[in-house]
Design a protein that fits this description.
two-stranded parallel sheet; 50% helix; 8% strand; Glycerol-3-phosphate (1)-acyltransferase; transmembrane helix; alpha/beta; 20 helices; disordered C terminus; Transmembrane protein 68; Plipid/glycerol_acylTrfase
Length: 456
């Protein structure tokens, strides 16, 4: 049994725990009764004062306390020093050793330290595996934090709605700051080519990563830098997620019918869409395979609205979060129920850079099939260019956190991924993915040198 300070017994919810573990307030009578009944009683004469104000030299802060000695004399028992060893004399006892002893006495299990050592070993082995599946949950937390903030904002500003041009203006700025901060800190997020976005309407077409985080970062950075808001087309299942209605309404997320998108574009809006959708998010891979199928509705929307198509791509979007989409049964199950049941893992703090390409202007004589093929060719070329710079996650993490003392140094260093030795990258690629590397090195040396010179 142990003696604890009186304040511990005033902590809410601890009464049951204290009773089960045999901790008592420490009055003289209670200690005498416990000792006479054959119990082992532990006490720290220094108490809370010693815990808070002692130092690394292990200074005793007992003051004039001698009640513990009086209890031992009255009960006629021996005092056992917690820091004594019969063989080696005085030596410090670690907190873990003391905890192990207490657990052994409480549970009655012999050699409990062996079980604890095995448990700690399993924890260290399994922690990375568990962590990579839990980290994507940060995005879910951010989404629901955004929803909570929107409810607070709505409650606070209901009376001002009649006097505001857009009720959600302040909320959009607030959430843009939240998401941009997360992207800047966790991924060192950068947006390049924002000047290619026209002042008028336009259709931004992007490759869908395992999560839409890069699109959210893009929308937030665009709103902060250019005061321009970009609507996004979402899958049907998103509108059925609990609590998401207010978030979708505030950001003007579109359900995706052709007429709705055309009308929004004709009103001057900027719209982002991923032709591959959820299927591409779940079942594409680290080779950035395009999974558009026969989808050409986005091209028809651009033609009907007479607006340019703006290609967008985020470097390393597949290295941040990945999926287990290679399991065939999950693909079959998705095609049946059309719900994102594929597990995702990662959440790694890799460097993310979003590149905005030059707009593909509207041409009245171009068909939807021709425009779709043109956009697809652009992305295939982009992936070939970026293909020579695919790195493993360890290299990406190192690139992101190198030269941490200076943001400029870290970001400049992050650009050096273009200068990785082709021989070293070739070796790494053929060791890890020998069956897929033929696609990786179809880029000409001239394209590589041109891209390296352009970025450096």
């Amino acid at each position: 049994m142990s003696v604890a300070d009186h304040f511990v017994f005033r902590l809410p919810g601890l009464k049951l725990l204290l009773g089960v573990t045999g901790i008592m307030p420490g009055t003289r009578e209670e200690c005498l009764i416990a000792l006479k009944n054959g119990y082992l009683v532990s006490i720290s004469p220094g108490g809370v004062r010693e815990a808070l104000f002692s130092d690394e030299s292990y200074q005793l802060m007992w003051g004039n306390r001698k009640g513990f000695a009086r209890v031992a004399l009255d009960a006629k028992v021996e005092m056992i020093g917690g820091n004594e060893s019969c063989a080696a004399g005085p030596m410090p006892m670690s907190y873990l050793t003391c905890l192990t002893y207490i657990l052994g006495e409480w549970t009655g299990v012999e050699n409990i330290e062996d079980y604890l050592s095995y448990a700690v070993y399993l924890l260290w082995v399994l922690f990375p595996l568990v962590a990579v599946f839990l980290l994507p949950g940060v995005l879910v937390i951010l989404f629901y934090t955004s929803i909570l903030l929107l409810h607070i904002y709505k409650r606070k500003n209901e009376l001002k709605e009649a006097y505001s041009n857009d009720f959600w203006d302040g909320a959009k700025q607030m959430l843009a700051t939240l998401w941009d901060g997360h992207g800047r800190i966790w991924h060192g997020y950068e947006l390049h080519g924002a000047e290619n976005i026209p002042e008028g309407p336009g259709l931004v077409v992007f490759y869908h990563g395992a999560t839409p985080a890069d699109c959210v970062y893009f929308m937030a950075r665009l709103l902060i830098q250019k005061k321009r808001y970009c609507h996004v087309v979402a899958d049907h299942f998103v509108f059925r997620l609990p609590g998401f209605k207010i978030l979708l309404d505030a950001h003007g997320v579109l359900h995706g019918p052709k007429e709705e998108c055309v009308n929004a574009l004709k009103k001057g809006s900027l719209i982002a869409i991923a032709p591959g959708g959820v299927r591409e998010a779940l079942f594409s891979d680290e080779m950035y395979t395009i999974i558009w199928g026969n989808r050409k509705g986005f091209a028809q929307v651009a033609i009907d609205a007479k607006v340019p198509i703006i290609p967008m791509f985020t470097q390393n979007v597949r290295e941040g979060v990945r999926t287990l989409g290679g399991i065939k049964i999950l693909r079959s199950l998705y095609e049946r129920i059309r719900l994102p049941i594929v597990p995702v893992y990662g959440g790694f703090p890799v460097k993310l850079r979003t590149f905005i390409g030059e707009p593909i202007p509207y041409e009245p004589n171009v068909t939807a099939e021709e425009l779709t093929a043109k956009v697809r060719e652009i992305y295939i070329y982009i992936f070939k260019i970026f293909g020579i710079m695919i790195e493993n996650t360890g290299i990406l993490l190192s690139s992101h956190f190198s030269h941490g003392a200076s943001y400029r140094s870290r970001w400049n260093h992050g650009r050096l991924w273009t200068c990785l030795s082709l021989d070293a990258l070739n070796c790494f690629c053929f060791i890890t993915r020998p069956c897929r590397c033929s696609r990786l090195f179809k880029v000409s040396t001239a394209s590589y040198i041109a891209l390296k010179n352009n970025l450096l």
